[in-house]
Design brief:
Layout (H helix, E strand, L loop, with lengths): L1 E7 L2 E6 L9 E11 L1 H7 L15 E9 L11 E4 L2 E2 L5 H4 L10 E2 L11 E5 L3 E3 L6 H4 L2 H11 L10 E4 L3 H12 L5 E4 L3 H9 L3 E3 L5 H8 L7 E4 L4 H10 L5 E4 L11 H6 L3 E4 L5 H12 L9 E6 L3 H10 L6 E5 L5
Parallel strand pairs: 10-11, 10-13, 11-12, 13-14, 14-15, 16-17
Antiparallel strand pairs: 1-2, 3-4, 3-8, 3-17, 4-5, 5-9, 6-7
Helix pairs in contact: 4-5, 4-10
Family: Belongs to the zinc-containing alcohol dehydrogenase family.
Pfam families: ADH_N, ADH_zinc_N
Cofactor: Zn(2+)
Length: 341
């Protein structure tokens, strides 16, 4: 089978390897789609602070069950599935509480573990998530980023009726807005410098603004002189982070989702003075992942809106180049591994 291998930044090579045979506890998947996320772009450019080379990418993906191991039950061949890619140790107190993203020994498919960037992929059946029959391979591959959004919104004890300010209108920012709206938040203001992303945010019910020196006054005008109760930083940059800190109401929430290439200088004086709840949000719990599947099944989220481009498996490197060169056009780029699936 063919596998996409990244030996160094900005280079993807293809090699032929043996199709894996599932062990007793594993499932063999025929990969259909792989999504490129913002953290993947950081890896491709060599700027992700926690990922090293070489590696095989692919943590947002969908595929069809091709074969199951001898001890695996409850799965049928031909079923469309996705995979929860965060692998905790399973025995520490964090894992026992379902918080595997906080496990000290956390491993990640597509990072330290081989990703799904190949025609076939084996994975522990415990991490395989069957998709409802009404779900497409494209949408199934977006379960993982939707789970990230669900997890970040659930960091707020009670978001119903709360005003929300989101920085970043990419996949995670838009999905965070959609989930916050589903959970009753509002009004929701999304800030992005790219007009296309703001247009997409408007289509899911957001008010939108572009960064400017007038931003604080504009937000206060929308909120009738008030400040947002909750802010989400989905960019991974010091400027939007500190703007969240400055603009959120006293005692409010700053949820940090963006991936930072460098440690940002943060206005901790305001964090302390305003008694802010500043919380990092990395991945999800198993319950968050299942909630994402439910939202997709019930068509409560618009994933198709964000799926702007497809590239064949053999053009994965071209997909990255397109993303980097045309941020004004692209949001979620999908790699079609099985173009017939």
């Amino acid at each position: 089978m063919k596998q996409a291998y990244m030996p160094e930044p900005r280079k993807i090579l293809y090699r032929n390897i043996e199709t894996p045979v599932p062990e007793a506890h594993e499932v063999l998947l025929k990969i259909a789609r792989i999504g490129i996320c913002g953290s993947d772009v950081h890896v491709f450019t060599g700027k992700h602070p926690l990922v090293s080379f070489p590696l095989v990418q692919g943590h947002e993906f969908s595929g069809y069950i091709e074969e199951v191991g001898a001890d695996v039950t409850g799965f049928k061949t031909g079923t469309l599935v996705t995979v929860e890619p965060a692998i905790g140790c399973g025995s520490c107190k964090r894992c026992q509480a379902g918080l595997f993203a906080q496990c000290e020994k956390l491993l990640f498919i597509g990072g330290a573990l081989t990703g799904a960037g190949s025609e076939y992929f084996t994975v522990d059946a415990r991490h395989v998530v069957p998709m409802p029959e009404n779900v497409s391979p494209d949408d199934a591959a977006m379960t993982e980023p939707l789970a990230v959004a669900v997890h970040s919104v659930r960091k707020i004890p009670e978001i119903t009726g709360q005003s929300v300010l989101i920085f970043g209108g990419g996949t995670i920012g838009n999905l965070t807005a959609q989930v916050a709206k589903i959970y009753g938040a509002g009004p929701i203001i999304l800030v992005d410098k790219i007009p296309f992303r703001n247009t997409l945010a408007q289509r899911v019910g957001c008010l939108t603004l572009e960064p400017s020196s007038e931003l604080e006054q504009q937000v206060r005008a929308i909120l009738q002189g008030g400040q947002p109760a909750v802010t989400f930083e989905c960019v991974g940059s010091a400027t939007p982070l500190n703007t969240c800190i400055r603009m959120v109401e006293r005692g409010g929430y700053v949820i940090v989702i963006g991936v930072y290439e460098d440690a940002p200088k943060t206005e901790m004086v305001l964090v302390q003075d305003k008694e802010l709840q500043m919380i990092g949000s990395l991945m999800y719990t198993w319950d968050d992942f299942q909630e994402a599947v439910t939202l997709i099944k019930e068509a409560k989220v618009n994933l198709k809106l964000l799926q702007t481009h497809h590239f064949p498996f053999e053009q994965w490197e071209d997909a990255y180049t397109f993303l980097l060169d045309h941020p004004e056009q692209a949001v979620k780029v999908l790699i079609d591994v099985d173009q017939g699936g």
